Amino acid sequence: MGCTAADVVAALRAAAEVVKEHRDELVRLDQAIGDGDHGENLRRGFTAVLSRLDTEEPAAPGKVLKLVATTLISTVGGAAGPLYGTAFLRASAAVGDLEELDRDAVARALQAALDGVVARGKAVVGDKTMVDALTPAVAAAASVDGSVAAVLSAAADAAAEGAESTVPMVARKGRASYLGERSAGHLDPGARSTSLLLRAFADAAAKA
Amino acid sequence: MKKIINDPETVVQDALRGMQAAHSDLLTVHHDPAVVVRADAPVQGKVAIISGGGSGHEPLHGGFVGRGMLDAACPGAVFTSPTPDQVLDAVARTDGGAGALLIVKNYTGDVLNFETAGEMAESEVRSVVIDDDVAVKDSLYTAGRRGVGGTVLLEKIVGAAAERGDDLAACEALASRVIGSVRSMGLALTACTVPHAGTPSFELADDEMEIGIGIHGEPGRQRVRAGTASEMVSALLEPVLEDLPFAAGDRVLLFTNSMGGTPLIELYLAHGIAEQLLADRGITVERRLVGSYITSLEMQGMSLTLLRLDDEMIELWDAPVHTPALRWGV
């Protein structure tokens, strides 16, 4: 069973809810090694996504993803705005005009999102960024058989593990890198938010 | 948290409304997207100088909009870079046919958002990235040095060049020369509280100071016992001097900046010590700027910036400027 535009919208509504619930946690994580704006920026961005989804009804999954991309780019700011914006924009391009996304399309979209984040942010695995969560998620998605829900669930599990792996890392990108060794011992807020978003998508897909 | 605000959510737009009311002769504030634009923009035939960044550093950048400095400033949320559509709007409102130069402070978010805007702009747009903070070392393994106090001097000098009619390539080359000649470092005696976070961004004991801080309440490189003013000034100035390096015979601009919460009496005290220290090294302070110009909300602390001057930079520094925060020669 594929994933329609309505399913993607439902997944994004779920993601927006999760971002809202975890806003304070993301602010606290970012205060420890950054500047404390990540949770609030994402909350603002996803609130804007919700209000656009209330008034617009994109007909295809790719169009929904594009709406998310442009909204995040114009409302989030910080590094997360262009990075998540680029991720959704590339994911949108990867699925083109498909009316329903099968597991291959979802895996392709995840891969494109990762490629976009890496191209824009120039981070690699081990730099203590969202790339540390997204890279294992993409690999897991590509290696799992089964439904869209199974693919997303594997991706979310891998992302959670990837996010945890950032705790001992010394940051080499973003504002945390100014701390040098003092950045070790903290969970990276960008990796955490990536893992939260993928978990929300997976849970929504399981319910669909 | 005790602040003069109504709602953390609307701090920036509420402040921008007050700024419009206070300075309507110099600038116009647009909302959705938020852009502060010089009142007589676009100036035909003049290169537009545009900057922007997170709010909370006032007067940077909106306070430098006006004749002889910035054509537009893009204020982001507190400590959050602005979005590409703000930058695009600023370019569209200020391009007088000679293109636009974007002055970007070296932070991942600022660079990514301005870069995205630059790719989308229809006008001819160039950008320069300022990274004058010597506190950040090891640039291969970090996001690179941050843009701090030198930004104010850069905006003044390049703004004057654009005002006298320099073209885009000349403005860009001058900006690179200033960036290559300016170095800064800052320290904090207290943290600051971002309105939407509600709690201080780090904890400092009464007898501690944080050396090498940035301007976003992020901790610095080193936490030490807070000593005397003389010790503080030399803790900042020595690394700055060594870095370029500045040498006897150099002519410099010395910029002593408050992070927002340090009163002018302490700032002048520190400035006097810095002047003496430079005189002892045979370095001539030709121009100076003392005050709160690039701040970190209510943080107590200061930064010291040194710019090695040449005759052209001095002429451009002295050129008329008429903005909310800097005003002379008019």
Automatic annotation (TrEMBL), chain A:
PROSITE patterns linked to this entry: DHAL (PS51480)
Organism classification: Bacteria, Bacillati, Actinomycetota, Actinomycetes, Pseudonocardiales
Pfam families for this protein: Dak2
SMART domains tied to this protein: Dak2
Residue span(s) of domain DhaL: 6-203
Domain of life: Bacteria
UniProt keyword terms in alphabetical order: Kinase, Transferase
KW Metal-binding (keyword) present: no
Protein name: Dihydroxyacetone kinase subunit L
Species of origin: Lentzea flava
InterPro entries: DhaK_L_YcgS, DhaL_dom, DhaL_dom_sf, Dihydroxyacetone_Kinase
Coiled coil: none
PANTHER family in the record: TRIOKINASE/FMN CYCLASE, TRIOKINASE_FMN CYCLASE
One GO MF term: kinase activity
TrEMBL record, chain B:
Keyword set, alphabetical order: Kinase, Transferase
Gene Ontology molecular function: any one: kinase activity
InterPro entries: DhaK_1, DhaK_dom, Dihydroxyacetone_Kinase
Keyword Phosphoprotein attached: no
Leader sequence segment: none
Residue intervals of the DhaK domain: 7-328
Keyword Ligase attributed: no
Family matches, as Pfam families: Dak1 (PF02733)
Name of this chain's protein: Dihydroxyacetone kinase subunit DhaK
Species the sequence originates in: Lentzea flava
